[in-house]
Amino acid sequence: MRSSGRKFVSSGSGVRRRTIIASIAALVLLPIEASDAGWLSDIFKGSSKPDKSPKHAAVPKPAAPAKPVASNPPLPKPVTTSCEPSKFRIVLDVGHTAQSEGAISARNVAEFLFNQRLAQRIEAKLKAEGFAATRLLVTEGRARPSLVKRVTAANNLHADLFLSIHHDSVPDKFLENWEFEGKKSHFSDRFSGYSVFVSRDNPDFKTSLAFAELVAKEMKAQGLQYAKQYTQAIMGRYQHPLLNKETGVYSYDQLVVLRSTRMPAVLLEAGSIINRDEELKMDSAERREIVSGAVAAAAKQFCDPKPAVVGPP
Fold first, then answer.
1. Ramachandran assignment for 175, one of left (phi > 0), alpha (psi -120 to 50 degrees), beta (any other)
2. What domains are there in the chain, each with its CATH number?
3. Spatial separation of the C-alpha atoms in residues 28 and 20, rounded to whole Å
């Protein structure tokens, strides 16, 4: 508001005027709370189709400059877990839906298909290892409603553990154009690797982290490398704190399927399907066998943890 050139009647009025202006300025500068960001923070990664899905909804105000994300923030003390495999109910969530397919690979294959094939193999492996109560969760519908559906289903199944299966992509700004079998497509060979996510807002974060660590360690033991880009400033709003730089466990606190489930919850990005070389590996039965074996081994350790050995054997 412009000044009219007139003075206030008293100095007290001037003080009140300055106070009001300062208060308004303070309100304008308040940060947006996570809950106000709506579904934007619940959609994990951008689609490789440029700007056509709800994942690319515009942010209400210009984003603040990206800040470096700290690696290895303090972790809670490890928890001791034990369970009977035959009664331990693991819900394997097939990420995305047939109607909302997630990312599109470098060779134009929907992420949902990759997720479904891998989750089915993990289910078979877990059951073969004695986890007979394992349940495969396939959700229908569009992206946003399906997030609520899968959380509700997992809670109604009284799951002991929730594991969501995904395959990774990159933000649109990293995409390059190419043609595959005569069709236009996009790729990015810049990043590769698996990553494991947990939410510090999950009601049982410590147990979520314990299982995430086991999965990540088993993936690494199989010779796989984790995706390191999520701590980099170039990732913008897709930056996430790295909880363990040795294994590749990240936190993604606002993700609905990790935050709103009433049981320990973990999300596995098995590998990048927008990377042309890694897509071929992720599409192979051999890689599905490696990943499913890692998950099964992690589940066995989770239910029957071995005491740490101190000193030489």
1. beta
2. 81-303 (3.40.630.40)
3. 13
Alpha carbon of residue 63 to chain centroid: 20
Q: Write the CB contacts of 37 (distance below 8 Å, at least 6 apart in sequence).
A: 254
Place of tokens 């934007």: 40
Of 167, 42, 34, 30, nearest to 106 (Cα)? 167
Tell whether the model's pLDDT for residue 274 goes beyond 50. Answer: yes
Q: What are 193-203's pLDDT values in tens digits? A: 999 999 999 99
Q: How many other C-beta atoms lie within 10 A of the C-beta of residue 60?
A: 10
| Tokens (6 digits) for 309 | 């050995």
The length of the chain is 313
CA angle, residues 90, 238, 175, in degrees to nearest 5: 105
* CA–CA distance, 187 with 22 (Å, rounded to integer): 49
3-state SS class at 164: strand
197 in Cβ contact with 258 (< 8 Å): yes
User: How sure is the predictor about 81, in pLDDT bands with cuts at 50, 70 and 90?
Assistant: confident
183-195 confidence digits (pLDDT tens)? 999 999 999 999 9
Centre a 10 Å sphere on the Cβ of residue 89 and count the other Cβ atoms it contains.
18
